[in-house]
Amino acid sequence: MNKQLRFRVLFYLLGLLVLALGLTLNTKVGLGVSPIISVSFSVSTIWGFNFGNTTLVLYALFVIAQIALHLFQYRRSCAGPEGGRACAVQTHRPAHGAAA
User: Fold this and answer.
1) pLDDT tens digits for 45-55?
2) Nearest Cα to 59, choosing from 96, 23, 84?
3) Strand intervals (E) in the chain
4) If we measure between CA atoms, which residue out of 99, 97, 12 comes closest to residue 62?
5) What tens digit of pLDDT does each residue of 62-89 get?
């Protein structure tokens, strides 16, 4: 794993942690919960888990599911009638200022 990718992953995980902390503070001060964190709030209330950790795990699962969906879509588009040419066309980006 190169240095830039490690840096990006570290900041992404740090962002998830800050997001979970903010949602936890929002709930603890009595401002309520939003629909997206109602699942983690319910799980933490029913089973007695830590709300911040539950939110972080749930968001990480969402990210993993999104990556899996993107990979599935990419592989499906590469298996089309044009074969590998469809993938090459999708990933090709013209140079700055060049005609498409």
Assistant:
1) 999 998 888 88
2) 23
3) none
4) 12
5) 889 999 999 888 888 877 666 555 565 4
**CA–CA separation, 69 and 48 (whole Å):** 31
d(CA 7, CA 65): 22
What distance in Å separates the CA atoms of residue 25 and residue 23, rounded to the nearest whole number?
5
Query: CA angle, 87 as apex, 82 and 90 as ends, to 5°?
Result: 115
What's the CA gap between 81 and 72, in Å, rounded?
17
Identify the residue with better confidence: 64 or 27: 64
3-state class of 19 per DSSP?
A: helix
Secondary structure letter of residue 59 according to DSSP: H
Tally Cβ neighbours within 10 Å of residue 95. 6
Cα–Cα distance for residue pair 75/89, rounded to 1 Å: 14
User: Taking the model in full, what pTM does it have?
Assistant: 0.53
